[in-house]
Write a structure and sequence with these properties.
Elements lengths: L2 E5 L3 E5 L5 E3 L6 H12 L4 H8 L3 H14 L15 H16 L9 H18 L12 H18 L10 H15 L8 H4 L6 H16 L14 H4 L7 H8 L1
Antiparallel strand pairs: 1-2, 2-3
Helix pairs in contact: 1-2, 1-3, 2-3, 4-5, 5-6, 5-7
The structure holds a DNA duplex (15 and 15 nucleotides).
DNA sequence: GGCGTCACGGTTGAT
DNA sequence: ACATCAACCGTGACG
């Protein structure tokens, strides 16, 4: 059960069981997708992510699965422009991500894809600075497996990265990336705290990432293995329309 | 309880 | 300009 409302210029918007607003048939905003990946990478479980970001579990699972498989947080193609060639786009995205990381221009591609890959490669570079010591590993087993799964796929990209030489190409690339970020729309303003991580030294990146995640979570969500269900959540102004929604939120 | 998967209805862009 | 089709989207339900 979901309420629907018409948003001019957007289409048929709806509210899911978690209370999140979505537009049926349209991909989630990029910053939401990025937050999903960010939260997953720091060990937050998908169920917590779905609750926090008010995105359905299936969507979180789908986005994370795609990210782990392709390294892309972007929706397939609808907004990218080539809706009917998306599968080919996915296969080429991986190649182009690799090319981005070695500083080689991707094979012939549309301008939209270039923009996408600049952002994605930037994201991948960000995640490369994630902590690798066991002290920073996610606590639970599922997150740990996902964590290693990501790093497994990350190495696929990172092994093509040039050695950390901030003198020449890296600086130019970061400058270009920053210029691209400035040219992008307001959506990326929400991601500045995250994107800016890659320009920082790796020693402080973990704290910055943690800080950015805390910002995302607004200091309200803590990684817990057990959720309190009884008092505050039920007594809040969140009305439960039916038992199904109650069950869904409580799970 | 948490997760992966699938059907469904919807949107988008190409033909 | 309009209709049709295929691909993709997120949601919700199921196992």
């Amino acid at each position: 059960m979901k309420s629907k409302l018409y948003v001019p210029g957007v289409g048929q918007a709806g509210v899911n069981q978690l209370g999140g607003v979505f537009v049926n048939g349209r991909p989630l905003p990029d910053h939401v997708r990025r937050q999903i990946v960010e939260l997953a990478l720091v060990g937050i479980r998908p169920c917590d992510i779905s609750r926090k970001l008010l995105v359905s579990h299936g969507c979180v699972s789908k986005i994370l699965t795609r990210f782990y498989e392709t390294g892309s947080i972007r929706p397939g193609s609808i907004n990218g422009g080539n809706g009917r060639h998306s599968k080919k786009t996915y296969s080429t995205r991986i190649e182009m991500n690799k090319c981005q990381n070695v500083g080689v221009s991707p094979p012939s591609s549309s301008s939209s894809n270039k923009i996408v890959d600049n952002e994605e490669s930037s994201s991948v570079r960000n995640y490369h600075s994630f902590p690798t010591s066991p002290d920073h590993l996610p606590s639970n087993s599922y997150s740990t497996s996902r964590y290693f799964s990501f790093h497994h796929h990350s190495q696929f990209f990172f092994q093509h990265q040039p050695p950390p030489n901030p003198s020449s190409d890296e600086i130019d690339a970061s400058d270009d990336a920053s210029d691209d970020d400035e040219d992008q729309d307001d959506e990326d303003e929400d991601n500045n705290s995250i994107i800016s991580v890659d320009t920082k030294p790796s020693t402080s990146s973990s704290s910055l990432i943690k800080h950015s995640i805390e910002n995302i979570l607004s200091n309200k969500v803590t990684i817990k293995t057990k959720r309190p269900l009884s008092s505050s959540s039920n007594s809040s102004n969140n009305e439960q329309p039916n038992n199904k929604r109650q069950k869904s939120i409580a799970c």
